[in-house]
Amino acid sequence: MIAVNNVKKRYKDFCLDISMEVKRGCITGLVGKNGAGKSSTFKAILGLIRPESGDIRIFGKELRELGGADKQSIGVSLVESGFSGELTVKDVVPVLRSFYRNFEEKRFLEQCAAFEIPMNKKIKTFSTGMKAKLKVLAAVSHKASLLILDEPTSGLDVMARNELLDILRGYMEEDEGRSILISSHISSDLEGLCDDIYLIDHGKMILHEDICTLLDEYGVLKAGEEEFQKLDKRYLLRYKKESFGYLCLTREKQFYADNYPGIVMEKGNIDEVMLLMIGGLPVSAEAGREV
Question: I want to staple 129 with a disulfide (CB 3.0 to 4.6 A). Which of 15, 23, 36, 155 is the partner?
Answer without folding.
Answer: 155
